[in-house]
Design goal:
Elements lengths: L2 H26 L3 H11 L2 H12 L6 H36 L4
Helix pairs in contact: 1-2, 1-3, 2-4, 3-4
């Protein structure tokens, strides 16, 4: 096993472990904002590690495969904070309206 294959395996398993930890965090937490925190982590940490693993192994067998993996990871990393923030604001508004506030 070469150093690149070993690094790819370590990155892949670290990504899988991050996804599992995020799933357990979503399941374990009671507050919606805590769950949102773990959801945000699952949309950034795991895909970044798994995408890096794919790139280290040479992509999907071609340069275009590597570009696709990098593009998908970039979209997730750029848009996940925006979506997380929007969901958090919506939940806060819903909770605030339910309490009868202005």
């Amino acid at each position: 096993m070469s150093a690149a294959e070993l690094a790819a395996q370590v990155l892949l398993w670290a990504g899988v472990a991050a996804q599992l930890a995020s799933c357990v965090g979503v399941w374990w937490m009671r507050d919606v904002f805590d769950r949102l925190h773990y959801t945000a982590a699952s949309a950034t940490v795991g895909p970044a590690l798994i995408g890096t693993s794919v790139v280290v192994t040479g992509g999907a067998g071609s340069v275009s495969g590597t570009v696709e993996v990098v593009a998908a990871a970039a979209v997730l990393l750029l848009l996940s904070p925006v979506v997380t923030h929007a969901v958090g604001r919506a939940v806060r508004r819903m909770a605030h309206d339910r309490e009868g506030g202005p």
